[in-house]
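Below is a concrete protein record.
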Amino acid sequence: MKVKLLNMNFPLILCGLVSTNAYALGRTIEYPEVVNDYFATIQHISICGEYHKNDKFGQYRLIQSHLYGGEMIFVDQVEYIDSQFKVIKGFTFSEINNNHAELSLVDLSCHVENNSSVIITGNVDGSGHDDNNKYHFTLTLDIYNGNYIFKEKSIH
């Protein structure tokens, strides 16, 4: 099992971060790039959880996108402001969102835990480069500071 702790605390404009498990080729696709330039690639949005803080109402959402021949995931925090949802923060994950990886993601789910973390689980079921690249992953995102822990376990 591999475990990594990464800091991705950059509201909306996220800088690239190379993972220790990074692919030799490619680059991390960031949240603003998908929602601004490749909005049509978004395939599914899941509500991971909601929050009510003072007079504010918001949600944490898992965004699934198909881009560069593979699937990618992002999390955003949206808040209901002036009769519409507006993005407060967006998060990306370099282990999954590499434009060269071409990952096939299945069985994705998410939930908010203790009002402080978004937990995402799923399976990688091969890639455009290796059909045997199969593993289960758990990603724990600290919604306050942007750090996350990525754990993977082989499924062979």
Observations:
- The beta strands are 2-7, 42-53, 56-67, 70-81, 84-91, 103-113, 117-127, 134-142, 147-154.
- Confidence is low (pLDDT under 50) at residues 7-22.
- Residues 71 and 103 are 6 Å apart (CA to CA).
- The first strand starts at residue 2 and ends at 7.
